[in-house]
Amino acid sequence: MSGQAPGETQLAIIGGGPGGYAAAFHAAELGMKVTLISDDPQPGGVCLHRGCIPSKALLHVARLINEAREARQWGLAFQDPKVDLAALRSWKDGVVKRLADGLDELCTRRKVQFIRARAQFVDSRTLRLDKNGEPSGGHPEHLHYERAILATGSVPALPGIFKVDDPRVMDSTSALELTAVPERLLVIGGGYIGLEMGTVYAALGSAVTVVELTEGLLPGADRDLVRVLRARLDKTFQAVQLSTRIESLQPGKDGIAVTMRGQGEASEQVFDRVLVAVGRWPNSTGVGLEQTRVESDARGFVKVDRQQKTNDPSILAIGDVVGEPMLAHKASREAKVAVEVAAGKPTEFDNAAIPAVVFTDPEVAWCGLTETQAKAEDRPIEVARFPWAASGRAATLGRFDGLTKLVFDPQTQRLLGMGVVGSGAGELIAEGVVAIEMAAVARDIADSIHPHPTLSETVAESAEAFFGQATHLFRPKR
Ligand code: FAD
To answer: 280 C-alpha to center of ligand 1: Å?
Structure first.
């Protein structure tokens, strides 16, 4: 507890996710009196309790299963894995609990007051804390603050057609609970959440079908990266159906009958379970924003400027609730900006590169300017690629299915963007983020010594390819 007068705080933060808790800890470091309010029992938000962390714990298991199967070709044979679902669930829950306890501990150490409640604005300087009928735990019903940071995040999107009252129709939250491994799983949505969860269930034994409305998986990502992933997914998944619209879900005794329409006739298939992963909606309704001057756009995202300021001078907003990309690290960076602005510092969100990682097998990652975006904006770029077929490290891993690409400004040779598909792409992308933020040019990257044999060499080799000098076995086409 912070020693603040009951019912009053200097900075109220609504939402305990990677936006909210990062804001709370940074504000406490700057000496502010902070109250962090979240309706989950512990801080962590969606990311820790029903998003990034449980999904990555399960993806780690999926990877182990897949590698054990593949090891056969290297002369190492394991028996087929026996999955103890209860033990797997409890391991995943343990990972989450350990990290949530760590956040609780940090709240105590940094004197951040954590209140478990649902918060609603009564006016621009007051919140009502709703305990959902639980005993108040000594916390006030109303909290007055000097500044508030709204960090209420997002929830799985569930358009009307998918609203089926049957536990076999899941969203990402219920899919992560892993109550059963269905024989036939339909994943609706070929975005990163659908593909990651599909990867988990496929490794555990489900025959997974992915249906995507648009003409490609991972809309927005560069097609050359997605092609490499797709080649693998065609072996992992039972089917991938693009340009296909779901017309109805009908629960029955033998499963969920799904009517879908591709290019031609509508067809019906039956699945044991269906995962709806068609995006996320901002958590901006039911928060009492109408009692303040905060404005939202047509999709419900709260409007902010580059300093995370809303239209209400007392309220800043960060994270998923303010818009894309809906990613934990973007929320945490915005948190820092918002807190510094609340502390009167002249900060703004000026990052040039926000990384995105899809933790499929292989992983896909990108940051900064993509080729797709450059084409859409008609911006001149030069792209240098290095396929992993020429990487020594990829050979030792038996994983040639990879590609590293760098997007340069042709005039200045400055790095504008990076994309990677391949094993461990999520770790490699950080180099691109730093290089972009430091305004590195192609020569900086090519001449920086990268350790051999590592996949990081593919970054330097891509930069060499920019000069037409890839030094290893293979000279990629430009
Ligand atoms: P959230 O994490 O959504 O937290 C908001 C919190 O506020 C929640 O606890 C919510 O219950 C609470 N809340 C809402 N309204 C109120 C209220 N009125 N009063 C009190 N509390 C309230 N991102 C990545 O960067 N990497 C990943 O690998 C990744 N994987 C994901 C996997 C899945 C399955 C999902 C669903 C998401 C994933 N994400 C990932 C996205 C990531 O979880 C979000 O971008 C991130 O959690 C957003 O953080 P936030 O602080 O904005 O809000």
So the answer is: 10
